[in-house]
Design goal:
Helix content: over 70%
Radius of gyration: 24 Å
InterPro entries: BPD_transp_1_N, MetI-like, MetI-like_sf
Largest sheet: none
Number of helices: 16
Membrane topology: Multi-pass membrane protein
Keywords: Cell membrane, Membrane, Transmembrane, Transmembrane helix, Transport
Main location: membrane
Strand content: under 5%
Shape: flat
Subcellular location: Cell membrane
Number of domains: 2
Number of strands: 0
CATH topology of the largest domain: MetI-like fold
Length: 312
């Protein structure tokens, strides 16, 4: 992996982050005055203006933008309208719950999706293959909120095996983690199957079979490493969504994470909190994509060298 490849990917990641933050900043300002949402309808106009001046919302939007960017560079993401605490503190205290749920869902997705995709590719056009394809289609056909409600009706209301909401014990984690994990497993299984089918048709795989190599070694030593780039791509996207992709699931299961905070903050027009959530979510996604790009260069050195050749 060459230095130019690394620098180009890093600069692109920073530019993406700036564009996302700018877009959200402008859209939140155009959505309406958060002070009017915060205060009662009968609040006098002069009181509203005092609050707008106090929070810096009376300045032109470009002045607010410059002030916001300079504050972010200093680590200041503003203050929550509701409780007066720093917005970064309000958001970061929810990160452990969301990270726990997200990584639990990722483990479920990997444990289900990777073996399913590999088995489907190895048994092409068999009953296993058709079952995996059906699972992938069904996994994306059922919305996560509906699947979560089905799990609650079955395991909480009917069987009474698991709690329906909260995060007090590990039992509270099972249903939301399975809801997220099985939905992502469908995607991983589909990409793994397609990538493995492409690799299995290559001449070097036929040579490995002719040489009598064990099936496990052919899969783990030859097929899977050569099929890794599409699989790493989709896993990177899933990891990038850990902080922002569980809004619906956290709401259904009353999980006290960033997703649930996002719903309440948007409803209350908590501008500083929403901007902080979007910034951290964008940072996570950009970091995950940057890591995937770097893994590309490690898995296939030709990618980095081709980038260098084009830059010349």
């Amino acid at each position: 992996m060459n230095v130019r490849f690394l620098i180009a990917r890093t600069l692109r990641a920073l530019l993406t982050l700036i564009l996302v933050v700018t877009f959200v900043f402008v859209m939140l300002r155009l959505a309406g005055d958060p002070i009017k949402m915060l205060l009662p309808e009968e609040t006098p106009a002069n009181v509203i203006e005092q609050y707008r001046a106090r929070w810096g919302l009376d300045a032109p939007i470009y002045v607010q933008y410059v002030s916001y960017i300079s504050s972010v560079l200093r680590g200041d993401f503003g203050t929550s309208f509701r409780d007066g605490r720093p917005a970064l503190e309000v958001v970061t205290e929810r990160i452990p719950a969301t990270a726990t749920l997200g990584f639990a869902g990722l483990i479920v997705a990997l444990l289900v999706g990777l073996p399913a995709g590999i088995a489907a590719a190895m048994k092409r056009n068999s009953a296993i293959d058709r079952a995996v394809i059906s699972f992938a289609v069904l996994g994306h056909s059922i919305p996560t909120f509906f699947f979560g409600i089905l799990l609650i009706l079955l395991f909480s209301m009917s069987l009474r095996w698991l709690p329906s909401s909260g995060s007090a014990t590990w039992a509270h984690l099972l249903m939301p983690a399975c809801t997220i994990g099985l939905w992502n497993a469908a995607t991983i299984a589909r990409f793994t199957r397609a990538s493995m089918l492409d690799v299995l048709s290559k001449p070097f795989m036929r040579t490995a079979v002719a040489n009598g190599l064990p099936l496990s070694w052919r899969i783990l030593g030859y097929a899977l490493p050569n099929a890794a780039i599409p699989i790493v791509t989709i896993i990177g996207l899933i990891v990038g969504q850990l902080l922002s992709g569980a809004v619906i699931v956290e709401t259904v299961f009353a999980w006290p994470g960033i997703g649930r905070l996002t719903v309440t903050a948007v409803a209350a027009r908590e501008v500083a909190v929403v901007q902080t959530i979007v910034f951290l979510a964008a940072l996570t996604m950009v970091a995950a994509n940057l890591l995937v790009d770097l893994l590309y260069g490690w898995l296939d050195p030709r990618i980095g060298s081709s980038t260098e050749g084009k830059s010349r």
